[in-house]
Amino acid sequence: MDHAAVLALFDRDMREGARPDGPGARVERVGGVVRQTCSAHGWNGVVWSALGTADADAAIAEQIAHFTGLSREFEWKLYGHDLPADLGQRLVAAGFTPGPDETLMIAEVDGLAPGTEPPEGVRVVPVTDRAGVGQVAGVHEKVFGTDASRLRRHLLDRLTADPDTAVAVLALAGEEPVSAARLELVPGARFGGLWGGGTVRDWRGRGIYRALVAHRARVAADHGCRYLQVDASAHSRPILERLGFAALTTTTPYVYVPAP
């Protein structure tokens, strides 16, 4: 895989050419910025920018004005190769708070290591109804220690509006949810996005995460995706590297919360 070429393709297809990630969302290009605006429980933020030192601060101020005018918390998704080089410092100076750095990892679907099956006694099932969405949210809260009410509403909206492009899966030990993950598909896109993969503490180290990656890779291939992309944490990066994913750049969420 030509890393530079694939990263450029990712920027063009999934960032500059971003499409709405759910019902009611709107993606628009404003000058050198591509942003998504949607309801308060959806994802609001900047997905791509092409800025210089002369216009970066004005573009930042424009996005703050847009989202605060709607009373929306929003994220500026900054990648390690974005310009200007000091864009992160400018965002902090404007009132954004950076989150943890992650690694953008991409693999060719056909180049992944052979998938593993879940361990004995564990089965992978698709999420097709409200109860399943509730179980995904419950796993998310146990694994990441954060409130999953926004995730729950987002998944329900996607499941209702377009179930073929919002694939969530659960790993069940008996009837107990022990792991969950999502696959985001954009019709016609060459990239499928892996999101939210996590396993509860007592079930880690048994290959469940690998099994969920393999399951979603098969679904992505069935939908015509050539690549899979992940914003990987430090914990998941070594697992993904062993599966055949390559680290292409970093990504950091910069979050702006309007004053009450």
Automatic annotation (TrEMBL):
SUPFAM superfamilies in the cross-refs: Acyl-CoA N-acyltransferases (Nat) (SSF55729)
Pfam family, one: Acetyltransf_1
E.C. number(s) listed in UniProt: 2.3.1.-
Organism field: Streptomyces marokkonensis
EC main group: transferase
GO molecular function annotations of the record: acyltransferase activity
Annotated InterPro entries: Acyl_CoA_acyltransferase, GNAT_dom
Annotated protein name in UniProt: GNAT family N-acetyltransferase
Record flagged with keyword Acyltransferase: yes
Keywords: Acyltransferase, Transferase
